[in-house]
Amino acid sequence: MEDIELKNIWKEYDRKINEAKLLNMQSWALAFRTFEYMQAAKAKSKLNALRGLKKWMVFAGILWIAFLLFLILNSLSFSNVFFLSSLSAIVVFNVIAVAAYVRHVVLINEIDNSESLIEAQQKMAKLQSSTLQIARILFLQAPFYTTFFWSQKMIAGNWAAFLLVSLPVTLFFILLSVWLYQNIKLTNADKKWFKILFSSREWTSVIKAIQFMNEIEAFKKESL
Predict the structure, then answer these.
(1) 201-223 and 117-139 are packed helices; what angle lies between their axes, rounded to 10 degrees?
(2) How high is the pLDDT of residue 1?
(3) pLDDT tens-digit profile of 198-217?
(4) CA–CA separation, 55 vs 53, rounded Å?
(5) Whole-angstrom Cα distance, residue 158 to residue 150?
(6) Dist CA 175 CA 168 (whole Å)
(7) Which residue among 78, 84, 98, 105 is least enclosed by CB atoms within 10 Å?
């Protein structure tokens, strides 16, 4: 009789333990879903603002390209060879930038429609990488802003000023743009110069959104 009662006590104890475990799991699942929803909402808020900024950048970029093309078409002359070459190069860089910004808008829309946390994180990683890549490319156009006013007449008429001022300035921007192209990467994200260059909302919005999504994964790992 005592054995039967003891078994019943153990069964009741096991039942209560299982109920407690189930309640804990349900409580954890509810807490996780709430945290996931809040973090995802914060991330989407950042990305929605970024999407609006990217659309504006596409619009502004198209206007800038149209203006440059207008200048080029109205300056077709061999005497304007430096002007035409510089503006043509700048147009190419800006066309690449506009195409990248359109791709960024598409990526943000895909992140919104992501069915899983992993998928959203992968899309954000692509957005972050593409943002860095287009920044690197755009810095390469800097030297052309120092050559558009060159002319054969200016060089021949004041070659000393050209050699001592104009040419060194252009060479400096060439070296600077190449250095930036080579060094703009995530491994340098903690550097002061990097933080200064990438302090705009275009970059910080991506970083914040990634942090919000990563915190979901961290919460899940810490809770299990």
Answers:
(1) 150
(2) 47
(3) 999 889 999 999 988 888 87
(4) 5
(5) 11
(6) 10
(7) 78
Angstrom CA distances, 69 to 97, 121, 202, stand at 16, 39, 27
Please provide the DSSP assignment of 64-105 as one string: HHHHHHHHHHT--SGGGHHHHHHHHHHHHHHHHHHHHHHHHH
Instruction: Read off the tokens for 86.
Output: 């510089």
> Which residue is associated with the tokens 């802003």?
145
DSSP-assigned letter for residue 43 = H
The tokens for 12 are 């009741």
Question: Rounded distance, CA 48 to CA 55, Å?
Answer: 11
Instruction: Write out pLDDT tens, residues 118-174.
Output: 888 889 999 999 999 999 999 999 999 999 989 888 888 888 888 999 999 999 999
Residue found under tokens 């309640």: 23
Residue type, 96: I
Model confidence, pTM:
0.84
In the DSSP assignment, the letter for residue 44 is H
Q: How many CB atoms lie within 10 A of CB 122?
A: 14
